[in-house]
Write a structure and sequence with these properties.
Blueprint lengths: L8 H23 L9 H12 L4 E3 H5 L6 H13 L3 E6 L2 E9 L1 H23 L4 H15 L24
Antiparallel strand pairs: 1-3, 2-3
Helix pairs in contact: 2-5
Length: 170
């Protein structure tokens, strides 16, 4: 079944603004989960993406595609995370010009610990406000808006923290 006609300009702008404001509100709330965990939200995002990648490793340029920071900022972030033992860097064996970032056991442990708390907070903030059907619809619409964007790394269920009670999958 083909999609309906595109939204008119006003409806599109209103939808974007509502989405943007909802994201800001949710992010502000979620940010509160991080201060006492010893990991910044940008670091958590790196840990999440690496945990979902095959072998818990990605080239920096591939990791960058999934983050909301510039390439130089990603490189500096990875350097800081490496100095804290969360990740390691090495030359790409398939292309010496590239750098591969790999999640360390300490980084995986930190991700699981923080991820459990983060998942609980998401469930409280988002899951308690949306029905399962609404959450699935939000996921569908978000993926549709991402359009031609590179897919996120496949989810490795063993790498993800346990879902809080009452959370549902897709």
């Amino acid at each position: 079944m083909p999609d309906a006609a595109p939204a008119d300009r006003r409806a599109a702008v209103d939808a974007w603004e509502a989405l943007h404001r909802a994201q800001i509100a949710v992010q502000r709330d979620l940010r509160q989960a991080f201060p006492d965990e010893g990991v910044a939200q940008t670091e958590y995002d790196v840990l999440l993406n690496l945990s979902r990648a095959p072998g818990a490793r990605l080239r920096i340029r591939d990791l960058h595609r999934h983050l909301l920071i510039s390439q130089p900022s990603v490189s500096r972030l990875i350097e800081r995370m490496e100095s804290r033992g969360m990740v390691t860097r090495c030359s790409d064996p398939d292309d010496a010009r590239g750098t591969v970032v790999e999640l360390t056991p300490a980084g995986r442990d930190l991700f699981r610990r923080v991820g459990t708390r983060f998942a609980r907070r998401i469930s409280e903030r988002v899951g308690e406000r949306l029905t399962d059907a609404e959450a699935r619809e939000l996921l569908r619409l978000s993926e549709k808006l991402r359009g031609g964007a590179e897919p996120l790394p496949a989810q490795d269920a063993a790498a993800l923290p346990d879902r809080p009670r009452g959370a549902t999958g897709s």
